[in-house]
Design a protein that fits this description.
Bound molecules: fe (iii) ion
Helix content: 10-25%
Structural class: alpha/beta
Strand order of the largest sheet: 1-2-3-4-5-6
Strand content: 25-35%
Radius of gyration: 16 Å
CATH superfamily: Ribonuclease Z/Hydroxyacylglutathione hydrolase-like
Distance between the termini: 31 Å
Number of strands: 14
CATH class: Alpha Beta
Length: 226
């Protein structure tokens, strides 16, 4: 399998490129508009044909490259069916599979960070978007975020996956690249709560700043960055 974890410096976003092998079909998760040229170069270098692009949710901190990638490669755009983005061509449901030749990726509805957040599971690779981060969790204070929903998505869905599942989030601000479900259960400070109420209390008292370009980014992302 070809698996590349790409990093956007400005927004600390991780983008993932997946394909079975050279010369085959490829899929990209959470592309960043400014980096589309780099993705195209990488796809050419690996002789890959981009067929699908997934956004885990409507991002607030960067503009998605989905629409631009579609223009260039004719790939299909995919999001979970709770997305407010009408332009999305394939809206997947909870538990639905996305096929990439012999690879299968399961969509998991994991609302809380936003009401449209999905995570994607390929074998033991979990792409958690901003639902579960390394040593953190996605904030729940905008875009219909809800910390009760987030608790449910994290504790009753993602943390039920086997401990050895690799965790690949959409962001990291401290240079961490990968973790596992087992590690996060033990070490993630946000997960050391004993009830949903305790989690809600924790999330309600984070006092985070509003992301600087959220209004612009969300407006662009509703149109997949076009
Ligand atoms: Fe986000």
């Amino acid at each position: 399998m070809i698996f590349k974890q790409l990093f956007d410096q400005k927004s600390s976003t991780y983008t993932y490129l997946i394909a079975s092998s050279k010369g085959r079909e490829a899929l990209i998760i959470d592309p960043v508009l400014e980096n589309v040229k780099d993705y195209i170069i990488l796809l050419k270098k690996l002789d890959l044909r981009l067929v699908k692009v997934i956004d885990t949710h409507i991002h607030a901190d960067h503009v998605t490259g989905a629409s631009k990638l579609k223009d260039i490669t004719k790939c299909s755009t995919i999001m979970g069916d709770h997305t407010p983005a009408d332009a999305v061509e394939i809206k997947v449901k909870d538990d639905e599979y996305i096929n990439l030749e012999n690879l299968k990726i399961k969509a998991m509805y994991t609302p809380g960070h936003t009401s449209d957040s999905y995570s994607f599971l390929m074998d033991n690779y979990l792409f958690s978007g901003d639902t579960l981060l390394i040593n953190g969790t996605g904030r729940t204070d905008f875009q219909n975020g809800d910390s009760k929903d987030a608790y449910n998505s994290i504790f009753n869905k993602l943390l039920k996956l086997p401990d050895e599942t690799f965790l690949y989030p959409a962001h990291d601000y401290k240079g961490e690249k990968v973790s596992t479900i087992g590690k996060e259960k033990k070490q993630n400070p946000r997960l050391q709560v004993s009830s949903v109420d305790e989690y809600v209390e924790l999330m309600n008292n984070l006092n985070l700043k509003k992301p600087t370009e959220i209004d612009f980014n969300v407006a662009k992302n509703i149109n997949l960055g076009a």
